[in-house]
Amino acid sequence: MRTSLIAAAALLTITGLSACSEKAQDNVENAGSAIGDDVSNAVDRAGAKIDNGLDDAGRAIDNGTAKIGAATDEAAADAKREAGEAKRDVGASLERTGSDLRNE
Q1: Nearest CA-CA partner of 38 in 74, 12, 11, 2
Q2: Contact 13, 24 (CB under 8 A)
Q3: Could you write out the DSSP letters of every residue in 16-75?
Q4: Is residue 34 very low, low, confident or very high in pLDDT (cuts 50, 70, 90)?
Q5: 38 C-beta neighbours (distance < 10 Å), count
Q6: What does each C-alpha distance from 29 to 8, 13, 68 come to in angstroms?
Q7: Which residues does 6 contact at the CB level (< 8 Å), separation at least 6?
Q8: Taking a C-beta distance cutoff of 8 angstroms, is the pair 33, 66 a contact?
């Protein structure tokens, strides 16, 4: 919106000074050029900030993915260990049951 206001002010200035001397017209051209440069620089800065924000977001996603991968690996290792313990417990229970059956 600020850019629109600046452009409108520049247009009014140019229109008002169109009947003025050549020096005034040169000043208007210089002002218009300066406004154009300011707008261009603002757009460039905005683009750079967007690029930086996207880079930061990409790094955050990569870090999150790495953390999820590590947590998944740890959970799989825990599940494997728990399954091994459960097998041993079932085996020991079956051995006790078999022993009890033989002794009866």
Answers
A1: 2
A2: no
A3: HHTTS-HHHHHHHHHHHHHHHHHHHHHHHHHHHHHHHHHHHHHHHHHHHHHHHHHHHHHH
A4: confident
A5: 12
A6: 15, 10, 58
A7: 35, 38, 39
A8: no
Given a cut of 80, whether residue 78 has pLDDT beyond it is yes
C-beta separation of 32 from 24 below 8 A? no
The mean of the pLDDT values for the chain is: 83
Single pTM value for the model: 0.49
- Positive or negative, the Cα torsion across 44, 39, 21, 19? positive
Residue matched to tokens 């008002």: 16
* Residue 19: pLDDT over 80: no
- What pLDDT shows up at residue 13? 67
